[in-house]
Design brief:
Length: 124
């Protein structure tokens, strides 16, 4: 049974940093990609970042480029999202999700397993 567990969210001030973790279990570590998505109140879920487990290729939402970094620890089966220079507009629930493909996607319909989410709140 596939399980994704996020952690690391919290309440921080603008300009601060947070590191989110996504611990994955219950699936073959072969062809897959892990994505981070976020959803703010009243807004649609959007793809923030993704990393391919197979090739290590990455994707970033334009508004987080240069501030967020996605990386993985395959030995721990964990994907991290390092978020620096946080802004109030980054406030959202952040979810990680699994895509059974070697390539990344920013479309949440391409992912078939989701974590429960972790709240990130950035105060101004």
């Amino acid at each position: 049974q596939v399980q994704l567990v996020e952690s690391g969210g919290g309440l921080v001030q603008s300009g601060s940093s947070l590191r989110l973790s996504c611990a994955a279990s219950g699936f073959s570590s072969g062809s897959s990609a892990i994505g981070w998505f976020r959803q703010a109140p009243g807004k649609e879920r959007e793809g923030v970042s993704c990393i391919s487990r197979t090739f290590g290729t990455r994707y970033y939402l334009d508004s987080v480029k240069g501030r967020f970094t996605i990386f993985r620890d395959n030995a721990k089966n964990t994907v991290y999202l390092q978020m620096n220079s946080l802004k109030p507009e980054d406030t959202a629930i952040y979810y990680c999700a699994l895509r059974p493909s070697i390539s990344c996607s920013s479309d949440n319909r391409d992912y078939n397993h989701w974590g429960q989410g972790t709240q990130v709140t950035v105060s101004s």
